[in-house]
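Hello Y.,

Per our agreement to keep a running log of every chain we model this quarter, I'm adding this entry. I've kept the format consistent with earlier entries: sequence first, then predicted structure.
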Amino acid sequence: MLIPDDVLYSPDIVDFTIRKNAYYAPLILNNPNLITSHTVADTYVICYVNVNNFTEMMDYMGSDFINSISNVFGLTDRAALEDSGIIQVQDQPYLNLKGNNVLIGFVDTGIDYTQKVFQYEDGSSKIKFIYDQTIPGTPPAGFPLGTEYTNEQINAALLSDAPYEIVPHRDTAGHGTFLASIAAGRAADDYIGAAPDSEIIMVKLKKSYPFYLDNYLVPAKQENAFSSTSVMLGVEYILQKAAELNRPVVICIGLGSNYDSHDGESLLEDYLFNTCSLPGVCTCISVGNESQARHHFFQQITQNDVPVNIDIKTGENAGDIFVIITNKYSDRISVSARSPTGEIISRIPAKAGRTYTTQLVLEPSKISVSYYFPVGGSGNQATIIKIRNATPGIWTIVVYGDIVIDGKINAWLPLTGFVSPTVGFLSFTPYTTITSPAINLGPIRCGAYNSYNNSLYPKSSWGPTRHSPNVPDFVAPGYQVGGYYPTGYGTMDGTSVAAAITSGACALMLQWGIVEGNDLGFSTPIIRTYLIRGCRRSDLIKYPNVQWGYGTLDLMQSFIVMRQL
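Predicted structure for the entry above:
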């Protein structure tokens, strides 16, 4: 469907994803108000519609609505290669692995293609493609939006005195540039990336549409808020380019979200799970930096324990607050709320798809409660509470057990940076703070540690997840790791850094397995197994555990273990 280039950049557009074979799919795809759609992996369909026509589409989807709307993701950033056993593998004469003929793809904030670490000795670029979703123009073939820049165009820009007139792509945040330098940077002075001979595909993600920024109460100053539809398009682009080039590929995702029900059953996570079984593809995801953020509440209850109070401490000028409460499909809950001044919102009966909104009488705050059950994929219940213009003090959400059998109550506040730092649960737990999409069972899930003193990086998210006890898979260096920003050399902390280091290690594994023909079946589960077996472990820690996973990444040890098979 041909549409003008700039239509999908209108603030009045909403994107959402459905399954191609959903019963209601023909009602949406044949609707004259549908602007355009894009099919991914012949299974998922990303749809675009004007916000004024979105209600009609919501009615078609019914209870599957919450599973189809876009989630919003943020960045998980906060002498590492030697500690990970990567330098040893690069220098081992019989291995001599540096990522030759392997691609590393990033869905992130873009890349500063002018940095020397992304250029060969002759000045040409090691970046094969840049897909910039933020620039209307010439999209990749078959894709609905954005502009594609090829290696030839990037090389022409590098030879020009005005490179940005030829390739106007920039990384204003610096996050994507930094991760790419860690995973795939060429040697510069005393610096080298994990897989310096690998080549790069960079996807710069488009910011979420205003509908979702408002729906999730994303702070106005937060620029790095990306929809799950954009991530899905980006991953599909990377996979298509890898297939065209007939090369193995590592996909690095340094993003996370707390906006969903944390059950690992979203359409994006389902899509990522399916891609992870492909030979020649390895996906690495950061687990987030939420363990000490006071953003997770948990309580195990019985029918006799309810009601339960969830108290949220709120500071001055905290703005808006988004809270999601989840419970298992066997249970049903309903909620009421109490403001800091004591105004009570009475218990609201739990009815699927219902939203109740009220303006407080003596406070400027407005509160809404929405119930969704059964949520597609898991069948669980999700209850969303939004407090706009929150009064400072203690807000209390009161949870009632209409039906209590399983009795596990989880609640999450948004990712750090997506809610005021003065907002947190009074009673919080660092457990079960893994962010989406690392909850998914398919990819390699990377936590972070401080390689200088061999301690856990304090903010690295802890497992378990709601359906898996063994997350993260392992930890990689994530404290004061060196790399390149658009402004030059610097350091970064966080699990996205750990995911980038791991992505470089996986590129070396793919070179050994696929490029050199030692095992053409190498895929994410196989590489994860070898990396886990090679992890360094302390005699003082029982493995696996919810902080360290199976230990610390040691690629050289993984190859030693493989030799013993």
